[in-house]
Design brief:
- The strands form 2 sheets. Strands 2, 4, 5, 6, 9, 10 and 11 form a 7-stranded mixed β-sheet that branches.
- The protein contains no helices and 11 strands.
- The chain is globular and about 40 Å long.
- The mean pLDDT is 96.
- Strand 4 and strand 5 form a beta hairpin.
- It is mainly beta.
């Protein structure tokens, strides 16, 4: 099992930046692809970004391309989401998730993820 704890959320003005962090414990971190998700109208959670086990592959939702960067540090058991040029529509609770993988793969499919954190609130004011 993996326990995930997010941090780094807060209140920021439009155009500002935040760096979210997710700390993992309980199981070898490098066995998991990691993703970030947030709630969306009509969906339980929508995909934001994902990174494969060793960081070879990263994928982003169209809404975050060019503004968000996902990265990981396997030595520190952490995954990060750097968010720049934030918009009011980015306001949400952001969840970190882990997907057990035997290969260097990453997926945007929410139900593929096995473990979830409690979330961190991001609020962008206009």
């Amino acid at each position: 099992q993996v326990q995930l704890v997010e941090s780094g959320g807060g209140l920021v003005q439009a155009g500002g930046s935040l760096r979210l962090s997710c700390a993992a414990s309980g199981s070898p971190f490098s066995r998991y692809a990691m993703g970030w998700f947030r709630p969306a109208p009509g969906k339980e959670r929508e995909f934001v970004a994902t990174i494969s086990r060793r960081g070879v592959y990263t994928y982003y939702a169209d809404s975050g391309k060019g503004r968000f960067t996902i990265s990981r540090d396997n030595a520190k058991n952490r995954v990060y989401l750097q968010m720049n040029s934030l918009k009011p529509e980015d306001t949400a609770v952001y969840y970190c998730a882990a997907d057990r993988q035997d290969y260097e793969l990453a997926t945007s499919v929410v139900y593929e993820y096995d473990y979830w954190g409690q979330g961190t609130q991001v609020t962008v004011s206009s």
